[in-house]
Structure formats: structure tokens, C-alpha cells
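Researcher: Good morning. I'm working through a list of sequences from a screen, and I'd like to move beyond sequence-only analysis. For each chain I'm collecting a predicted structure so we can compare shapes side by side. This is the next one on the list. No need for commentary yet; just the structure.
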Amino acid sequence: MLIKCISNSMSSLPLSLRCLGETDNTDFTFLKVGHMYVVYGLMFFPCRVDYLISPEDNDPVWVPGDFFEIIDKKLHSDWSINITHLDENYKILYENFNIQVLIGYVDLVTSISHYIGILEREPSDLRKFYGEKNKIDEWQLAR
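Model: Good morning. C-alpha cells for this chain:
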């Protein structure tokens, strides 16, 4: 999946599309308007979809999908899905953050410790992420 950034300002999102305490001051200026990003995961809230991307010179980060237009909507064939409220390990994401569904590479949606490890910047989980990133990037470039 390939997306193009059309905004990096939280003030452009209406309040109805904000999650997790975001305000006008929530910083997404690391996103480059007009730049293309490969998507490594999707996270569904009741109000929006977030994308897992890896901006240049930054570690992976979840960003609001409303900042992007979809250029290529094809998903990698190895990806899986997790419906969080049905999975004991992921239920905490539903109960605490209202995250309903995750779609992405297998470890992202089957290992809650890997999901958390990416957020907490654990070296072993970042290595695993970058291994998956390389595989997905190669696939995306070959399309």
C-alpha cells in the first residue's frame, strides 16, 4: 500500500476524527506534504484509520490516515488481521484505546509484545520491523 501525504497539521482534522487526546498542537510536522510513504500496518478506530509508516530518518510511527490520499491500495499477501476485542492478548488495545482492528505483517498482529515493542522502541522489535519493512518495500517497488 502506498500513500501520499496531503497534510501534516492536526488543526486540519475536525475534532470528530481525533483520537488519543490529540489537539491542534499534536506534532506531525515530520511528515512531508507531497511525499509518498509505504504502509506497514493499518489500525482502525471508530472514527478513523491510522497507518504505520517509517518516515525518513525516523522510527516507525502510527499516523492519521486522513493526512494522506491512497495511491496504491494493494496489501501485501502475507498480511494478517487482528480483531482486538476477540483476542485476549490484544483486548487491552480495544478496552483502553478503542482500537478495533489491526492489519499488517504477521508479528504486528499476532505478538502484542512486538506491537508494544515498536511503540517503546525496543531494539529487537525495531530490527524485526525493519526486516519486514525491507520485504514490503521490495514488494512495493516491484509492482
